[in-house]
Design brief:
By secondary structure, the chain is an alpha+beta fold. The chain has a domain at about 1-65 and about 100-109: hypothetical protein PF0899 fold. Helix content is about 25%, strand content about 35%. It contains 2 helices and 6 strands. The strands form 2 sheets. A 3-stranded mixed beta sheet has the order 2-1-6, with helices on one face. Strand 1 (about 25-30), helix 2 and strand 2 (about 60-65) form a beta-alpha-beta unit. Bound molecules: zinc ion. Zinc ion binds next to loops.
């Protein structure tokens, strides 16, 4: 239950930031290569916020694509999965982003 641990951590951070205020919206950025299922994370989030000041808040998940640079030709390659091919045929890719999992915004009343 990878997603449950992540959801617990997010809820703990949001609770800290909110300091008792009612949270109405939480925005999380999840990279496509972070190995996290957004729907599963959403479900775990709903479970974790029960009884907290975040209960009822809207969870928005921003899925950002993976990005890598080809070591062969220097071109940037958009990835939907950890491995991929550059348009030049090269498979030697340096991962630039896509593994991030970040709390981006919290809205409180
Ligand atoms: Zn290339």
């Amino acid at each position: 239950m990878h997603e449950l641990e992540i959801a617990q951590e997010i809820v703990a951070i949001v609770n800290d930031h909110a300091a008792g205020a009612r949270v109405t919206r939480v925005l999380i950025e999840v990279g496509k290569l972070a190995a996290v299922l957004p729907e599963s994370l959403r479900f775990c989030f709903e479970v974790c916020v029960e009884g907290t000041s975040i209960e009822g808040a809207r969870l928005d998940i921003l899925e950002s694509p993976g990005l890598a640079r080809c070591r062969g030709c220097g071109a940037e390659v958009v990835l939907d999965q950890p491995a991929g091919l550059c348009a030049c045929g090269g498979a030697d890719l340096e991962l630039l982003s896509g593994r991030q999992l970040q709390l981006k915004e919290i809205e409180v009343i």
